[in-house]
Amino acid sequence: MKYLDNKLSSKMSLATTSKNSNFEIVCKNLVCGGIAGMISKTTVAPLDRVKILLQAQSHHHQSHGVTKGLKHIIQKEGFLALYKGNGAQMVRIFPYAASQFTAFEIYKKYLDGIFGQTSHIDKFVAGAGAGVTAVFLTYPLDTIRARLAFQFYIVTLKITSFWSHTALEWPSAGRL
Asked: Are residues 91 and 119 both part of a single domain?
């Protein structure tokens, strides 16, 4: 009887340890994935800033390419200006990268060997599933970011329009 009790107790402690270690692995994957995403986005932030300025076709940046755009930003605004907007990007990218990395590891674990030992289809399916999972989980954040950016644009446009209208109409109305 004592033998059965010891065997049962070791199985229960092994199951508890396994659950704790799985939770610990998932937590580590979430943190590592999030940090990796933040590092990668911070690395390419200067190029992303130039891309956005070129896409907006601002008259200040319309004749610049990528390298001239980088130089122009550094000369006019300083080095740290290359990272404008990076903080907001970090708020969005951490949960996305964390969920994508963790989902990939989980899917890869469960799909391992289903399509054969030498096949890489299981990793392809795991990667595709991880991408879908990450987008599904973080889509509300992306929607909020887009709405806030649009609202900021509208407010800026209204303020700019008000001041432009005032500057053009005020003198002609005989108020100066």
From this structure: yes
pTM: 0.67
Q: What is the largest CA-CA distance in the chain?
A: 105
| CA pair distance 86, 78, nearest whole angstrom | 15
Per-residue pLDDT of the chain (176 residues; tens, 9 = 90+): 454 444 444 444 444 556 678 899 999 999 999 999 999 999 999 998 888 777 776 666 566 788 888 898 899 889 988 888 888 888 889 999 999 999 999 999 999 888 888 788 999 999 999 999 999 998 887 777 666 655 554 555 555 554 454 455 555 555 55
Residues 126 and 91 grouped into a single domain: yes
Domain with 101, as residue range(s), is 2-36+85-168
Structural domain count of the chain = 2
